[in-house]
Amino acid sequence: MDSTTIFCLLFSSVLFLSLFKSLASGRRKLPLPPGSLGWPYIGETFELYSQNPNVFFASKVRKFGSIFKTHILGCRCVMISSPEAVKQVLVTRAHLFKPTFPASKERILGKQAFFFHQGEYHAKLRRLVLRAFMPESIKNIVSDIESVAVESLKSWEGQLINTFQEMQKYTFNVALFSIFGKDEVLHREDLKRCYYILEKGYNSMPINLPGTRFHKSMKARKELARILADILSIRRQTKHNQPDLLGSFMGDKEGLTDEQVADNIIGLIFAARDTTASVLTWIVKYLAENPSVLQAVTEEQEAIRRDNCGEDKVLTWADTKKMPVTSRVIQETLRVASILSFTFREAVEDVEFEGYLIPKGWKVLPLFRNIHHSPDHFSWPEKFDPSRFEVAPKPNTFLPFGNGTHSCPGNELAKLEILIFIHHMTTKYRWVKSHYRWSVVGPQNGIQYGPFALPHNGLPIRLSLKR
Ligand code: HEM
Ligand SMILES: *[C@@H]1O[C@H](CO)[C@@H](O)[C@H](O)[C@H]1NC(C)=O
């Protein structure tokens, strides 16, 4: 080999190497999505929280389109609001986007709660949860849920109540029933007391020093775990195969530790209670504000009550399938109120996404509320009009329960407990919003944000028996 050949070889291999390198790094040359990151560290947090967050998102979408970057609470993130992009993040490329929560939430709910996870552990626990909450299972607790609804409404008669707070009690009781069946009555008050302390720490700084909120929550968490361990050991002794969630977790083959069971039960109460309670609160408000809708719902429910000879506690699963008008009211409420305005994911690697780069570690936020309020998908989006759901919405334009691997396994139970509640509320009671409390120093549009959108002051109402 002469020196020219060597030179040529060297030269071509250098050329080849550099070509290869630029090919391999081609990905990194993709641009970031459009948008602004704002000030260092604080980013655009102030802009977001100084106004109605929907106005913030909507103005960004107008300026930059359906994919844009921003910077809130110390995180760089990409917000997405087209059905196609949301489908990719939640469904078709879900493995590239893992769920992500603030540290305080993870520690208070318990690190082993399945919705913090991806992969095998998530899939296994999710299967157990779905088994307990699928129609075949919850069919059996219709009359138990009905008793809880009837008792709740009775306790409101003639009172000025905070709708949201009362709905929280209802949805807590239903959640406890679906988890523990009849077993839990003994422990109900203890579980509630601990849970109320625990939840105060959800959004606190995760500093575990005596005196801090976080510390109190962690202590309540330990006590909750102890109560749950007691319930587990009692069940093991009696060895009954119960059809509730605890029974599903305790199946012989599952081999879950007590800690895993506790983390997942606390996590489930968290996912089930306030979500459903805030949807119920919005329904009460929309029914009060739309007399013709209330009329139609009441007529539908009265027809069912007549068929049941006006008796309490006789609703069946089949009855709840004969409530199309009421079901559309629930759907429209889920759309307009969009109580979960968005959710969080995190890119597990550098991801090429619709011609842009989403760098590893960046958060990705599907903006459900923007999709639900876009005139592209729902005409006159601000109008409350349940009849729009006479036609099924297009795929991935209506995602109150999310979609894909992490979509809501409790959605059937949520709809069931809402239907049962509305049945009794509309057939037996009338209610008025309490304008006196309602109008005191509130935000202009009467909506409170964080964690869920809620009517101002939890919607004080006065309820009275009809006739
Ligand atoms: C109307 C009330 C409810 C609404 C609007 C709602 C909404 C949602 C949404 C949007 C998600 C997906 C979040 C994401 O992808 O990041 C979700 C997940 C979840 N929901 Fe619900 N939910 C409701 C009631 C319930 C109930 C009653 C339960 C329990 C029985 C429940 C248990 C869960 C769980 C465990 C997850 C996590 C699933 C996973 O990561 O695989 N939810 N919910
Ligand atoms: C979830 O995504 C799948 C796949 O794109 C789609 O077929 C389905 O309709 C979506 N679900 C909803 C509720 O839009």
From TrEMBL:
It comes from the Eukaryota. It catalyses: 2-cis-(+)-abscisate + reduced [NADPH--hemoprotein reductase] + O2 = (+)-8'-hydroxyabscisate + oxidized [NADPH--hemoprotein reductase] + H2O + H(+). GO terms for biological process: abscisic acid catabolic process; response to abscisic acid; response to water deprivation; sterol metabolic process. Its cofactor is heme. Residues 1-26 form the signal peptide. SUPFAM superfamilies: Cytochrome P450 (SSF48264). InterPro entries: Cyt_P450, Cyt_P450_CS, Cyt_P450_E_grp-I, Cyt_P450_sf. Pathway: Plant hormone degradation; abscisic acid degradation. CDD domains: CYP90-like (cd11043). The keyword Iron applies. Pfam families: p450. It is a single-pass membrane protein. Keywords: Heme, Iron, Membrane, Metal-binding, Monooxygenase, Oxidoreductase, Signal, Transmembrane, Transmembrane helix. Its main location: membrane. It is found in: Membrane. One of its GO terms (cellular component) is membrane. Heme binds at residue 408. Its EC number is 1.14.14.137. GO terms for molecular function: (+)-abscisic acid 8'-hydroxylase activity; heme binding; iron ion binding. It is an enzyme of class 1 (oxidoreductase). Belongs to the cytochrome P450 family. PANTHER family: ABSCISIC ACID 8'-HYDROXYLASE 1, CYTOCHROME P450 26. This is (+)-abscisic acid 8'-hydroxylase.
